[in-house]
Amino acid sequence: MVNAQQWLNEKFPAREDKEKVKKLEIRLNEPESNKISDQTYKFCGVTLEVIDCTNLNELSLNTNEKITSIEIHGCVNLLKINGLEQLLNLQNLHLWNQNPRLQTTFCQGNWKQELQGLRKVLLEEKARNEQILKELADTVLPNVTFDLSKLKQEIARLKLNELIPQARKEKSDLEQQIANAKNKVENSFKKIIDMLLETQKQIVGKNDPLVQAQLTGKLSAYLSMLEGNLSEQELQTLLNKKTELLQLEEQIAKLQQITSLNSAD
Asked: Looking at the whole model, is its pTM more than 0.70?
């Protein structure tokens, strides 16, 4: 078990290093580990006592036990804390000292009652949502005992029935537009159209900013090469149609994964 502040002090002993920390995620009931991703720091299996980290702007608490006391001070950029309502054993809460930007609905002198009220509201909302799901299940799967996984599978199946024909049409329309564009250019430029659309596909599929910047440079070069043969509107339409089709195919793939996983169960 690690202490979040102790871990920060060991990892970032200097104040200027500690200022790199933007977000903490406190997770219990998971294998103990420390994970770093960009400027988000995740602690799995931690205790939380005092957090003092100047540039911290978000704290997420994904647990419902073990934490009994929280004291946060000197976090001048801290905007919000997520998950306080999950801390069922919380006895002491000190948030109101030197955290000028922190947005909380809890008053210092009445936080326990207000936290209990929030928990009650969330439980009532959860009950309403469960009732809505059961009513939806009765509509989609009548005469079948409520089963969330089966409901997700059936909704995914219905959505696939709608999206697959749409994707076929989108693909056919795009292929026709590509053919029309190639008919307007010389043979030497037809391959450039293919390379343009392949680069757009790579851009849509990449989240790395550096890789995206490199691909965007390639895309701009291909656009410049084609500008003398196709209008800016024609080129942008091709790119938009390609993006829409890729997004649609990605959505279909996710839905097919849901149906296949549930079928395997």
From this structure: no
Report the C-alpha gap between 231 and 235 in whole angstroms: 6
Is the model's pLDDT at 176 over the cut of 90? yes
- Structural domain that includes position 50: 2-104
Q: Are residues 45 and 91 in the same domain?
A: yes
Q: How many CB atoms lie within 10 A of CB 165?
A: 10
Residue with tokens 């849901």: 258
Co-location of 83 and 160 in the same domain: no
